Amino acid sequence: xxxxxxxxxxxxxxxxxxxxxxxxxxxxxxxxxxxxxxxxxxxxxxxxxxxxxxxxxxxxxxxxxxxxxxxxxxxxxxxxxxxxxxxxxxxxxxxxxxxxxxxxxxxxxxxxxxxxxxxxxxxxxxxxxxxxxxxxxxxxxxxxxxxxxxxxxxxxxxxxxxxxxxxxxxxxxxxxxxxxxxxxxxxxxxxxxxxxxxxxxxxxxxxxxxxxxxxxxxxxxxxxxxxxxxxxxxxxxxxxxxxxxxxxxxxxxxxxxxxxxxxxxxxxxxxxxxxxxxxxxxxxxxxxxxxxxxxxxxxxxxxxxxxxxxxxxxxxxxxxxxxxxxxxxxxxxxxxxxxxxxxxxxxxxxxxxxxxxxx
Amino acid sequence: xxxxxxxxxxxxxxxxxxxxxxxxxxxxxxxxxxxxxxxxxxxxxxxxxxxxxxxxxxxxxxxxxxxxxxxxxxxxxx
Lengths: 359, 78
Fold this sequence. Notes:
Chain A: The chain crosses the membrane at residues 20-38, 75-93, 114-140, 146-166, 173-191, 241-260, 272-294, 300-322, 334-358. The complex is a heterodimer of chains A (359) and B (78). Chain A has 359 residues and is an all-alpha fold. Chain A is built from 18 helices and no strands. In chain A, α4 (60-90) crosses α9 (157-166) and α8 (142-154) packs across α16. In chain A, 43% of the residues are buried. Chain B has 78 residues and is an alpha+beta fold. Chain B has one domain (2-77): Glutaredoxin. In chain B, 42% of the residues lie in helices and 27% in strands. Chain B has helices spanning 12-28, 40-46, 69-77, and strands at 2-7, 32-37, 53-56, 59-63. The mean pLDDT of chain B is 86. The A-B interface holds A 1, 5-6, 8, 10-11, 14, 94-96, 99, 122-124, 126-127, 129-131, 133-134, 137, 202, 206, 211-215, 217-219, 221, 225, 228-229, 232, 327, 330-331 and B 7-9, 11, 13-14, 28, 30, 40-41, 43-51, 59-66, 68, 70-71, 73-74, 77.
């Protein structure tokens, strides 16, 4: 940039938008072409490796290897696409707009709207505190705020699209509907419990002082800026999660190659009633990225684990995480955090049992 | 001298935002004083709902995610 500060025009007007649109369209086409060829490519690599290496293609190791070599590029490509698309889409929403939409809503409708908005509003768990205060100080009921805070991590867009790509649209849809359902019901229940007194004292004081920060929001971004945000998010997120993805797929590959099917059905099948609470108990303290847990889900389902048990495991891993609890501890008392975890975990349990019963 | 405040609880993005502000100001030759606001209470009172947020001389110019590089140059040189 050789522009001096004095004659710098508004960045939006500096260049036309069409090269960006063209570039994004070309990248999308290229993505589609490569993605379509992944399966034969991975199979060719596996064949070559097994033909020259010490492992046979039809051995346990061969099966694990094929799973790994196909899934790593597939998941990484899906991840790049999802993160870019979701970031561009989310740039049309903001916490401020969501708050404006939710202000004055009553419980019920408010819970449902909050859960839906929780999925599309840009949210990072380090913003949880400022967002929470922003909502509560604007007079949004505690239960409605919780519906938002539960849905935001629970219905994870990365998990949703990976489920769609790796497992199938039925499971993806189930996850979406029941994730939203838990957020609505859990928020509603927390609202009915009237726990406003269980906030940290200083939060209630801000509450009483009311929201004074009614400044006009930042300017609306241009389309190229939204694309640039998408690219930055891809760099940031892929750089952060690739290791989780590789570990998750490695784990999935081991399950795929080595875990015998009858053992899996015995411990995670629909007949074993205790498997759902066990999956939740195991999943709550576990914390991994959504991109890491889906390959495990795929492998477990492939080996005959019951859908309800696997969904319960996945939801408790993604939705309830220790780091977020620690952040929320600044605004919520321990009792309120315990209620939050308890209500959400019960919802996940219910979904797990219901599914094992129905399917 | 511009007084820039970067709001955020100290996550990686907030650090990146603060260093972007410092780098851009140095590039433009603008004198700035950067203050990181990490106290959740102070962030809440400032009206920032999604972090990181940036205010310049008391005006909130940005909130939520990393700022766009070109916009940041615009704010600092305004």
